[in-house]
Amino acid sequence: MCRIVPDILSLPQHLETLEQQPVIYRPLACPHCGLAKPWGHGCYQRKADRQPGPAGSLNPIPIPRYRCSGCRQTCSRLPECVAPRRWYAWAIQQLVLLCLLGGGSLHEAAAQAGVERRTARRWWVWLQTQTTPFGFWLRARVPAWGRAATLTDFWLAVLAAIPLCRAMAWLDQAGVAVP
Known about the structure:
Blueprint: E1 4-5, H1 11-20, E2 39-46, E3 61-67, E4 74-76, E5 78-79, H2 90-101, H3 106-113, H4 117-141, H5 151-161, H6 164-173
Helix pairs in contact: 2-3, 2-4, 3-4
């Protein structure tokens, strides 16, 4: 099952879509047993607004949940702008990764993004270890990225063309576990 709903790039857009077209979030089938059309099962709250704007924080953000009538398991889907199983937004992770890909130190990258150095290191290690499976699927989608000889060249080409959130949404649609 795709956990990420593509093309929802901001939290205000997510809230608007939930109000006007909530069916977009409904999975076509249960990810556990495959039974079609799980039922709505409320929502859970998530703190996704890490950088509140002038109007204030949007926290908590509602994330819709669905329950399968067959196996009774629940599932949920996130907008593209919210990273699954991550505290920080994709944009902050991209900022750190671009700094590191450009030759910056962990200290510089962490300071620039306002995160802990350990967090920046964890994201860097994650990117390095996942480059092979991620690269396979992303190169299948955009063959020109196959010309990149190194990890750095590959990710710089990807992030120059699309944001990290879009790349992760593409991988999620291909069935790759993200993050």
